[in-house]
Amino acid sequence: MKKDIIIIGGGVIGLMCAYCLQKSGRTITIIDKNNLTDGASFGNAGLLSAFKKAPLSNPGVVLDTLKLMIKGQSPVNIHPSLDLHLYKWLYKFAASATQERLKRTLALFERYGELSLNIYKDMLENDGMDFYFKEDGLLLVYTEEKNFNEKLQIYKNTHNVEILSKEKTKEYMPIINDKVIGSFLLKENGHLDPTEFVVELKKYLEKNNVEFLLNEEVTKLEFENNEISKIYTSKSSYSAQTYILSTGFDDTLAKQAQNRFLMTPAKGYSITFTMQEEQKPKTCALFADLFIAMTPRRDTVRITSKLEIGSTNPNIVQKQINSIYKNLSLYTEDFKKENIEEWAGFRPLTINDMPIIGFDKTYKNLVYATGLGWLGITFAPAIGKIINDLITINKKNETNIDILLFSSFYQG
Ligand SMILES: Cc1cc2nc3c(=O)[nH]c(=O)nc-3n(C[C@H](O)[C@H](O)[C@H](O)COP(=O)(O)OP(=O)(O)OC[C@H]3O[C@@H](n4cnc5c(N)ncnc54)[C@H](O)[C@@H]3O)c2cc1C
């Protein structure tokens, strides 16, 4: 029997699409090649950082990264590749980082960040879900005077940003050392525990009759009359009215629909551990000169860093873990970490921080929901709502204002 909606990929984006669509009365099947405990949506930092924080593609990012690379401290690594697509991506990324785009991106981030925060709060208050969620700001911590002063010019007259001295920063982050100059508290941002969130959302969706087909890989899309007529998996075949492709960084199936998006996997690491309660950070923080995030959770603390482009090797490379510890030690006193868990995953990174969302231009029943890069947790609820509105109300990209504003199909 033909299904209503099949979502391929059960990361946070696929799950949030399912959440919004089941609320609209649609019948959903989620197919994932794993069991949802491994992808980018599970091991990330959990920052909800849409407010007052520069996007990745901002003017100066290329020069700053090159300087750090020369000093051997860069969190960014670019692996040489024979794939010309990577060089096209890098070129377009550098060309996108303009002042004009920055203003537009910041405004879009605020719009969809607020929408997402409201949906997260609604899930906690009205759906009876229970996941670790805090709206207590994001601390940007600096050791480099030049970087701090540049940000000071931007933030000194900005609403909802508090400038903190070294001493005040220490109250939020007891482990910092004397090299720290000060910090900025971006008060509207927050954080959650992505592991708890994915587990809790899956439980909620199961209770609300969403079907999960796990450990089942979609291997082939079959096309007929400008539609997907059937999909083949490692176990069976299915057909549906509508298909949503939310496969994260993996664009194998999009290529079958003749799409090669300007998206690249950007590998990152997280290290999760327990530490003494009185030393734990009071809120989430970004050690901003070297892009290391530190997020307190219910019982643990997680640090994340690195942005490796041109690698699809899923293994944990010890050299990278050691480099994260080394960079962290530039900001902190030595502190004891126990019960350490290391993880690596891939961000689906577009050239300009704009997601790949909307109907395929050829296949009428195929919708994309990916390309959220380093902000998938920040925007997942908004993406779920946009995809729901697109499928159930507007039915065309051109009549959905959010697709026109936010999708990389229109912001290329
Ligand atoms: C180190 C790190 C730190 C991060 N920190 C943050 C942060 O602080 N805040 C934030 O907002 N974002 C953060 N992110 C980004 C965020 O994690 C991602 O944007 C988000 O998880 C992407 O979700 P997704 O659902 O698109 O992809 P994924 O979570 O990768 O899910 C895609 C799913 O598709 C499945 N799949 C793929 N191909 C197939 C197939 N053929 N058949 C069946 N299933 C398939 C996969 O198994 C996977 O489960 C971070 C990412 C990393 C790596």
Automatic annotation (TrEMBL):
Residues 4-390 form the FAD dependent oxidoreductase domain. One of its GO terms (molecular function) is oxidoreductase activity. Keywords: Flavoprotein, Oxidoreductase. Pfam families: DAO (PF01266). Its cofactor is FAD. GO terms for cellular component: cytoplasm. SUPFAM superfamilies: FAD/NAD(P)-binding domain. Belongs to the DadA oxidoreductase family. This is FAD-dependent oxidoreductase. It comes from Malaciobacter mytili LMG 24559.
